[in-house]
Write a structure and sequence with these properties.
- Belongs to the RNA methyltransferase TrmD family.
- One of its GO terms (cellular component) is cytosol.
- Homodimer.
- It is a single chain.
- By secondary structure, the protein is of the alpha/beta class.
- It has helices spanning about 55-60, 100-110, 135-140, 160-165, 180-190, 200-205, 240-255, 260-270, and strands spanning about 10, 35-40, 65-70, 85, 95, 120-130, 145-150, 165-170, 225, 230.
- It folds into two domains: about 30-190, SPOUT methyltransferase, trefoil knot domain (Alpha/beta knot, 3-Layer(aba) Sandwich), CATH 3.40.1280.10; about 200-270, tRNA(m1g37)methyltransferase, domain 2 (Trp Operon Repressor, Chain A, Orthogonal Bundle), CATH 1.10.1270.20.
- The chain is elongated, with a radius of gyration of 22 Å.
- The relative contact order is 0.12.
- The chain binds S-adenosyl-L-homocysteine.
Length: about 270
């Protein structure tokens, strides 16, 4: 394969070490029992797994419950210097990632993935995208994997987005210097929804955004700290009263802090009660 990258870099203990395999076999990347897989096109592969290598996501990565593969954009660059960017057409500040270079990286990353985008989304992290939320994490967690493109500089040549019909997703209404932090945040939110990643599946059902409400406040020992006691009901051992208190608090906090979420919650309730 001409212009083939050196080696896609897999993370996690079970990942195959490139040195153990002949180079030509590397295109036949192992798929661990179909575990959910994130492929990240980036100029900074060493930024991964980053924080995803810690705690629950890191343990799940080690156990092969999900897989991570970086596709180093530099490997697909032009010429001896492996150039990946050029000046913006029409002038102006900064540099733009070249479509030919990015196209080669995308073709490589998408090789062998399911045709249907619902099964394998192709995403560009972008401040112009639709804002990432829990529903998107849930949708992605039901796919078999995802390919994410991390931009740098002024971003991608727009023709790439058009040509591949790429989904643009934003971490929020602010501008980062690159897509890597956004990718890690979104992968974290997605991976924790995969079966077996969180020990306690119940915590998924109650937490913020799962039901369209923000979560109730949490407390733990000591029972009194700096003159502040834990709300008495939580110490009562009365499960019915505790559940009721938590529901009321979740509603109060959502109403006060996020009128937008509250309005959507009320609308859903109206719809569901005939
Ligand atoms: N000139 C662009 C910003 C480029 S920032 C614009 O004004 O729209 C450089 C890269 O950082 C982007 O290509 C994108 O991949 C990433 N990035 C920046 N902000 C982001 C955000 N809020 N969400 C996701 N990715 C972001």
């Amino acid at each position: 394969m001409s212009g083939a990258p050196e080696t896609p870099k897999s993370h996690g203990r079970i990942a195959v070490r490139p040195t153990l395999r002949p180079r030509e076999l590397m295109t036949d990347r192992p798929d661990l029992a179909g575990a959910w897989r994130a492929k990240i096109i980036t100029l900074f592969p060493e930024a991964f797994p980053g924080v995803l290598g810690e705690s629950l996501t890191g343990k799940a990565l080690d156990e092969g419950k999900w897989q991570l593969e970086t596709v180093p954009l530099r490997d697909f660059g032009e010429g001896r210097h492996r150039n990946v960017d050029d000046t913006p057409a029409g002038g102006g500040a900064g540099m733009v990632l070249r479509p030919d270079v990015m196209g080669r990286a995308i073709d490589f990353a998408m090789e062998g993935t399911p045709e249907t985008r619902a099964d394998w989304p192709l995403v560009y992290l972008s401040p112009r995208g639709k804002r990432f939320d829990q529903a998107t994490a849930r949708r992605w967690s039901r796919a078999r994997g995802i390919t994410m493109i991390c931009g740098r500089f002024e971003g991608l040549d727009d023709r790439v987005l058009f040509h591949y019909g790429i989904e643009e997703v934003s971490l929020g209404d602010f501008v980062l210097t690159g897509g890597e932090i956004a990718a890690q945040a979104m992968i974290d939110a997605t991976v924790r929804l995969l079966p077996g990643v969180l020990g306690n599946a119940e915590s998924l059902e109650e937490e913020s955004h799962a039901s369209g409400l923000l979560e109730h406040p949490q407390f733990t020992r000591p029972a009194e700290w700096r003159g502040l006691p834990i709300p008495e009901v939580l110490m009562s051992g009365h499960h019915g009263r505790i559940a009721e208190w938590r529901r009321k608090m979740a509603e109060k906090i959502t109403r006060e802090r996020r009128p937008d979420l509250w309005a959507a919650h009320e609308a859903r309730k109206d719809r569901d009660t005939p």
